[in-house]
Write a structure and sequence with these properties.
Layout lengths: L2 H7 L2 H26 L9 H12 L5 H8 L3 H13 L3 E6 L2 E9 L1 H23 L3 H27 L1
Antiparallel strand pairs: 1-2
Helix pairs in contact: 4-5
């Protein structure tokens, strides 16, 4: 939906909140990603590659077409990501015994270590900065988490419908 069109459907306060929230979330994600890139060993992973690895971690044996649907990407884009991650030693692509034409995706030990390191470094980075906030701000963030989870769920549901 076009921003100008959607803004007309919302009150000014809701539109301002929506815009500021989206901008802030994008800025936080970008800053986290940039900070985590420093000190990495091995090839740099793009955001879509990390998303694919995290998806395979949660759904071992997922097929490429199911991964494409889950990530809301074109099948050929996911195939390209899979090829890069197989080449770099992070994914195993094996033939699905139920359908010899299909592939199942599994993480390598290197990917498990990389994801674990990424999670640890992300938690440490964010935790360090959250700890620098005042108690009232930390409480506000804690209180906002259920609403942010619900927002993520509704965005996911809408994406599933398209």
């Amino acid at each position: 939906m076009d921003y100008l069109c959607s803004r007309g459907n919302l009150g000014d306060v809701e539109a301002d909140l929506s815009e500021e929230l989206a901008d802030t979330l994008v800025r936080i994600q970008r800053l986290i990603r940039r900070r985590l890139r420093g000190g990495l060993t091995g090839p740099r992973l793009r955001g879509a590659e990390v998303e694919l690895l995290r998806l395979v971690e949660g759904r071992p044996g997922i097929g490429v077409s199911d991964a494409a649907r889950a990530l809301h990407l074109a099948g050929n884009s996911v195939s390209t990501l899979v090829n890069h991650l197989v080449r770099d030693g992070y994914l195993i692509r094996e033939t699905d015994p139920a359908d010899r034409r299909a592939a199942r995706l599994l993480l390598t030990e290197a990917a498990v270590r990389r994801l674990g390191d990424w999670r640890h470094r992300r938690a440490e980075l964010v935790g360090r900065h959250v700890a620098r906030l005042g108690e009232a701000d930390r409480d506000a963030l804690r209180a906002a988490l259920p609403a942010l989870r619900e927002l993520a769920a509704t965005l996911h549901e809408e994406a599933e419908e398209t």
